[in-house]
Design goal:
Layout: H1 3-7, H2 36-52, H3 56-70, H4 77-91, H5 104-116, H6 121-136, H7 144-153, H8 157-160
Helix pairs in contact: 2-3, 3-4, 3-6, 3-7, 5-6, 6-7
Length: 163
């Protein structure tokens, strides 16, 4: 998965083990991920938050967003964030999903708004709308409740606070 980045000289192979030890920047984004020393403090809190969150929709939206906000690795954070999203979906009884290339710009814009403007509502709405589209298409039979919960997550105080 990361071999092309190593082969191209973008990252040393040693950077693939553990959390990153250098600052990273995201192409076409105003968001600057946490400093390397802060990642080691943030990740245990992140995992604790995931363990304590009972609502699957909130866990999916916050889990994906906070992981990519922290950006704990030198490379592959977006792929890992989408993988974690799918693990959380599957753990809650929902099927695996893929955000198609045609929706990438909307997905990235929603993540950018969550990261830079500290407004996760558009990202939660994007996920809920996408999952709702999949459900209406019959791909996720009987899962409309989850899409509604994810859209409702966009209005949830714990996801929209700026504190």
């Amino acid at each position: 998965m990361f071999a092309p980045s190593v082969s191209a000289g973008l990252i040393p192979a040693a950077s693939l083990a553990g959390y990153r030890d250098g600052q990273v920047y995201i192409r076409n984004s105003m968001h600057v991920p946490l400093a390397p020393h802060a990642v080691r403090d943030a990740m245990p809190v992140f995992f604790e938050m995931l363990e304590q969150e009972e609502d699957a929709a909130v866990r999916v939206a916050l889990g994906h967003f906070i992981f990519v906000y922290i950006h704990p690795y030198m490379d592959g954070n977006g792929r890992m964030g989408r993988f974690l999203m799918n693990v959380m979906l599957a753990a809650s009884g929902y099927p695996w999903t893929v955000i198609p290339v045609q929706r990438r710009d909307a997905y990235m814009a929603a993540l950018e708004q969550a990261s830079v403007q500290q407004n996760i509502a558009p990202f939660a709405r994007f996920l809920g709308d996408w999952f709702g589209i999949r459900w209406r298409a019959g791909t996720w039979r009987g899962r409309r409740k989850g899409a509604k919960a994810l859209r409702d997550c966009a209005r949830c105080p714990r996801t929209t606070s700026r504190g």
